[in-house]
Amino acid sequence: MIKVGDKAPEFSLPDQDGKTHALNDYLGKWVLLYFYPKDDTPGCTTEGETLRDAFSDFEKLNAVIFGVSIDSIESHKKFSEKFKFPFNILSDESKEVVEKYGVWGKKNFMGKKYMGTLRDSFLIDPKGNIAKIYRKVKPAEHAKEVLHDIEELEL
């Protein structure tokens, strides 16, 4: 189980345009790695929209945002274009990164139990360490919460 202070697990995943992003490429910046269950569903859309709407505030704090789900690159492209996301969403179809970060787990929806991606996020500091872990993220509040935490952690 990943803890605050741990070195963030490395990843290398393709975005909605097929371009590969590796965590090591973003040393020196804050990285918000947010995991979400499925493209174009209500909670995932709300989370993406609030991050989109706060994107310039993240840029001012030298922070990049990556959404991650197990959906395909093609699904991500449609989702990203539909909602005009200015950040990249990464495709983890192999489930390698969701498992590395411990966000592949048991879910329960309307009494039905199944395995899926948990709505958890990781704030990674400019040195590549886990600065904050957000479990069971509330999509509408997440952007504001993370921006506040980056500002606090920089003090």
Protein described:
The mean pLDDT is 95. A five-stranded mixed sheet has the order 5-4-3-8-9. Strands 1-2 form a two-stranded antiparallel sheet. By secondary structure, the chain is of the alpha/beta class. It has a single domain (12-154), classed as Glutaredoxin (3-Layer(aba) Sandwich), CATH 3.40.30. The chain contains five helices and nine strands. Strand 6 (104-109) and strand 7 form a beta hairpin. The chain is globular and about 45 Å long.
Salient structural properties:
single chain, 5-stranded mixed beta sheet, 155 residues, alpha/beta, two-stranded antiparallel sheet, Glutaredoxin, 28% strand
Describe the secondary structure blueprint for this structure.
Layout: E1 12-14, E2 20-22, E3 30-35, H1 42-53, H2 55-60, E4 63-69, H3 73-83, E5 88-91, H4 96-100, E6 104-109, E7 112-117, E8 121-124, E9 130-134, H5 142-154
Parallel strand pairs: 3-4, 4-5
Antiparallel strand pairs: 1-2, 3-8, 6-7, 8-9
- Spatial ordering of strands, largest sheet: 5-4-3-8-9
Task: Provide the number of structural domains.
Answer: 1
| Basic shape | globular
Helix content: 25-40%
Pattern of helices and strands: EEEHHEHEHEEEEH
Could you name the ranges where pLDDT drops below 50 across 5 or more consecutive residues?
none
Largest sheet: 5 strands, mixed
Can you name the CATH architecture? Answer: 3-Layer(aba) Sandwich
Specify the structural class. Answer: alpha/beta
What is the arithmetic mean of pLDDT?
Answer: 95
So what's the CATH class?
Alpha Beta
The CATH homologous superfamily is termed Glutaredoxin
Number of strands: 9
**Looking at CATH, which topology would you report?**
Glutaredoxin
How many H/I helical runs?
5
Rg computed from alpha carbons, rounded to a whole number of angstroms: 14 Å
Strand content: 25-35%
What distance separates the N and C termini? 28 Å
